[in-house]
Write a structure and sequence with these properties.
heterodimer; A: alpha/beta; 11 helices; B: 152 residues; alpha+beta; five-stranded antiparallel sheet; 3 helices; 20% helix; 33% strand
Chain lengths: 310, 152
């Protein structure tokens, strides 16, 4: 059966999106295949030349020169994938490390924590952007997912990564104090509908599920903020449209900690500001500096990012 | 769980890499060596954290038992720095090798490689580790890394 966007979904998100028709129809379109070049092992030039030899048409992503889009090819079965020259990754998942690079946060950062790291897409991208300098702690709560994390760290040659297996909420402070922390939080994942269209048929009033995630996310961001050095930078992200899990969580943080929100700018990418009101609750006006990525704007998944300074 | 590698194990591995593959030890400046159970040796970042206990650090480069056995991931990453004990495969053999098959070669591909662990290459790309005995190459590509290549 062809998936359809449920009315409740339309009602919920129609009120905060700029172009309802474009948004709802984008959810029914297949997501293009994308990858980034793993610059720890290969140059863009080599990868482009090799794909040209295969007759595979690559399109460079306008806002990230290491990333490419292509249609209908099994790139998993290329020599470049076997060698770890490329890393198959959704475009939106590349954003948190990219923002850190664009805003020169990585240059002076020696100690980074990726709090919910498995399967390692952002960790390995960070390692590449840092050219294997400094130290990245890639932490994940789920021991089974550590296997995938380890596999990807090894495949990409990410030498500067240490894996830990801990619930981030219980992560020991000890002498640990991080320059940068990434929290790509577990979430209701509505932004990945294009990849998993069956989610639409299962989508109904998600209130309970969303509030469960929001509660967890508050605990995670609270802990991460406490693990940051003074002046340290926290990048919080989710792949959901739910304001309770996005702006709501940042608002919760701002109500409890002396945090500031920083503007995010990604040249040549269309970004929407975070919303300032949801279900009658008015958020801190700083939240307009957070970013929503709507699928119909850049032909991607849906995503949310906030850059927080301690 | 990983711990600091003993100086003697580190020396042994570095000497082996130099003697067997011509890999210079200076390449690892800026990194530290770590040990784990079953003789596993890793290279990773200089700074470890005490708590929570690290599961691994960096990448697995070798296992020490009766012999020193380099890993495929190590040779893929440092293959361009290998100066000896390399074999060059053609396209057909590369497809078989990346699927996990052992190879019986004619001899031309082996060049001056001697029996023991070798770097297996295709068009200058480092595919990984193999164990050479005469004309026979035992496949040492770990199972999860094996692929049926369509484009090469």
């Amino acid at each position: 059966m062809k998936p359809m966007v449920p009315d409740q979904f339309k009602e919920r998100y129609g009120q905060i999106v700029d172009d309802q028709d474009a948004f709802f129809s984008s959810l029914l379109q297949q997501l293009p295949k994308t990858f980034r070049v793993n610059t720890l092992k290969a140059s863009k030039q080599i990868v482009k030349e090799r794909f040209e030899e295969y007759g595979i048409d690559l399109k460079q992503v306008p806002w990230y020169s290491d990333a490419f889009v292509l249609q209908n090819y099994a790139i998993g079965n290329t020599l470049e994938n076997f060698l770890g020259y490329i890393y198959i990754q959704e475009l939106t998942s590349m954003l948190p490390p990219l923002i850190l690079q664009l805003q020169a946060e990585l240059q002076h950062s020696e100690f980074i924590l990726d709090g919910c790291a498995a399967p390692g897409s952002k960790t390995t991208q960070l390692a590449a952007l840092m050219k294997n300098h400094g130290t990245i702690i890639a932490n994940d709560i789920d021991y089974n997912r550590i296997r995938a994390l380890k596999f990807n760290i090894e495949k990409t040659g990410s030498l500067n990564v240490i894996i830990t297996n801990r619930d981030l909420r219980l992560f020991e402070k000890g002498n640990n104090s991080f320059d940068i922390i990434l929290v790509d939080a577990p979430c209701s994942s509505e932004g990945t509908i294009r990849k998993n269209p069956t989610m639409l048929s299962k989508w109904f009033n998600q209130k309970k599920r969303i509030s469960g995630y929001a509660n967890l996310q508050q605990q995670l961001i609270n802990k991460a903020f406490n693990l940051l050095k003074p002046e340290g930078c926290l990048v919080y992200s989710t792949c959901t449209f739910a304001p309770e899990e996005n702006e709501g969580v940042i608002n919760w943080l701002l109500e409890r900690h002396p945090a500031t929100i920083e503007q995010i700018d990604i040249p040549r990418m269309k970004l929407s500001p975070g919303i300032l009101e949801w279900n009658g609750k008015v958020f801190n006006s700083e939240i307009k500096k957070t970013v929503r990525i709507w699928p119909h704007h850049n032909d991607t998944d849906g995503f949310f990012i906030a850059k927080v300074r301690k | 769980m990983i711990t600091e590698c003993s100086p003697s194990d580190q020396e042994m591995v570095l000497n082996y890499f130099k003697e067997r593959f011509g890999i210079q030890r200076q390449l690892f400046n800026g990194f530290s060596f770590y040990s784990a159970s079953k003789g596993r040796i890793y290279i990773g970042p200089k700074n470890l954290i005490e708590k929570p206990k690290p599961v691994t650090g960096g990448i697995l480069i070798a296992r020490i038992s009766r012999y020193i056995k380099p890993t495929t991931i190590f040779l893929q990453l440092f293959g361009k720095d290998v100066t000896k004990n390399t074999i060059r495969l053609n396209k057909e053999h590369t497809i078989c090798y990346t699927q996990g098959e052992d190879l019986d070669l004619t001899g031309n591909e082996i060049q001056d490689a001697s029996n023991g662990y070798i770097l297996v290459t295709y068009l200058g790309f480092s595919l990984g580790c193999g164990l050479l005995k005469g004309n026979y190459v035992k496949n040492l590509i770990p199972k999860p890394k094996r692929l049926d290549l369509e484009f090469l």
